[in-house]
Amino acid sequence: MGVFKIQDMTCGHCEKAIKLELAKGDPEVKVNVDAKEKTIKVENLADDRVLFLLREIGYTPEKVK
User: Fold this and answer.
1) Domains of the chain in sequence order
2) Contact 6/40 with Cβ under 8 angstroms?
3) Positive or negative CA dihedral for 20, 27, 61, 56?
4) How far is Cα 30 from Cα 45, in angstroms, rounded to an integer?
5) Quick one: average pLDDT of 22-29?
C-alpha cells in the first residue's frame, strides 16, 4: 500500500476526481482518502503509476510511505 500527500486536494470534488483517475489505472484499485490530512492510501496500483496519474490531472502528490 502506498501513502501519498496531496497538498492541493481541497474538497469532495478533488476526492472524486482522484478516485476516478486512479480507477483508470486499475479498476480494482482501492483508495482511502483523508481530506483533512490531505493524504490518500492506495492499494493494487504501483506507486509510480499513482504519481503519474495524479500529475496528469493537475495534482502535485508526494510519496509518504
Assistant:
1) 2-63 (3.30.70.100)
2) yes
3) negative
4) 8
5) 93
